[in-house]
Specification:
By secondary structure, the chain is of the alpha+beta class. The chain is built from two helices and four strands; from the N terminus they run E-H-E-E-H-E.
Amino acid sequence: MVLAYVMVRVDAGKEREVLQQVRKWAEVKEAHIIYGEWDLIIKVEVGSIEEITSFVVDKLRTLDPVKLTSTMIVAE
């Protein structure tokens, strides 16, 4: 199991739209709107590093309002 946190910046006013979408995905264990430099934090749990890559590149970044992501893979 690989656990990661993904910080996401989206277009202004699109936070709730993106939040509702990502909460439907099986890889997402938690997702929240946050204050500050980032708009969302997403807790992701998958089976491998490759699946993290697929989640971020092939799913999350394909959403039009998503402008920037930063992925932090949990070490322990």
